[in-house]
Amino acid sequence: MNSKIIANGILRALGILLAITLILFFLYKIQVVIVYIAIAAVISLIGRPIVLFLRRKLKFNNTIAVVVTMVFFIGLLIGLIGMFIPLIADQGQKLSLLNLQQLESNVENLYQQIVTYFEFNNIDVEQSIKDSNLLSKLDFSLIPNFFNGLISGLGSFSIGLFSVLFISFFFLKDSRLFEDGIMTFVPKGNEMRSKRSFTKIKDLLSRYFVGLILQIFILFVIYTIVLLIFGIDNAVVIAFLCALINLVPYVGPLVSGFLMLLLSMSSNLGESFSLVILPKTTYVMIGFIAAQLIDNFFSQPFIFSKSVKSHPLEIFLIIIIAGILFGVVGMIVAIPAYTAIKVILKEFLSEYKVVNKLTKGL
């Protein structure tokens, strides 16, 4: 091997590394666009069954079916915004989230009631809290800062929303648009297997995302009923937020439980802690736990087994591994990504025994 061949090899390797670096830098710069495309892809997968229903059952033209589906999504979004903005504003007013001094006063008042209640039961809660330095670690300014940032981000949100809806429309109208774009990178001879893989992935993920909406709806209904029974203010918005946060696997239920606990207690500020706040909050949390049991033992197993055709233990391990490697984002995208990988493995590596075992039932 002469020096010219070695030099050419080094230059080629450097060229490949430079090209990869430029591609990664380009993707980093357009990450917002990638997020828009990803969200639009999810919306198109959710809307795909509706479009197919309108085309096959009601004999709609493809374009009309897509327009009707998009109008349905936009109407649903407008309805949610119209319903939740007044409720959120009212909840913010009750919590005095935009008034830092009032918020601290409310929390201090609630804290004093809790301490007084437990003193009757010979439990020195105040000393325990002081020993843990918990109050000193609380930064109440984070809450109004969050809301101020949320308000300032509405402009960017409107642009992003328009972009997502625009992309979603064409993903639904030209359902093969995204697929054809990827097919340009598929080597010759693998086109048919790749097309079968795309079709299978779209079917499984459509059912998965529709199943997630059903999961949110079930939790939302249960939470709303529980909160309304015990007279918690703004039950609908609290139920919706807690059901939505529940989408984050394993971490979401903990966060939504804390949120429901906090908002349930704060909705009764000024009332007697022992006679009103504690009993109501206890009953609400019992209802929350019951909803979680229904979700964990009925809703989720049904979604996973019927949509992505994976065993619950298999899904649990994949989510845990993805969470360790990529954090919360990894936990959210773990199941769709794992499902796509399984379909591709079955289509291209079905001759291996381990692949057959892993993809059984797909």
Automatic annotation (TrEMBL):
Residue intervals passing through the bilayer: 9-28, 34-54, 66-89, 146-172, 208-232, 238-263, 275-295, 315-341
Membrane disposition: Multi-pass membrane protein
Location within or outside the cell: Cell membrane
InterPro entries: AI-2E-like (IPR002549)
N-terminal signal peptide: none
Assigned protein family: Belongs to the autoinducer-2 exporter (AI-2E) (TC 2.A.86) family.
The protein's name: AI-2E family transporter
Lineage: Bacteria, Pseudomonadati, Bacteroidota, Flavobacteriia, Flavobacteriales
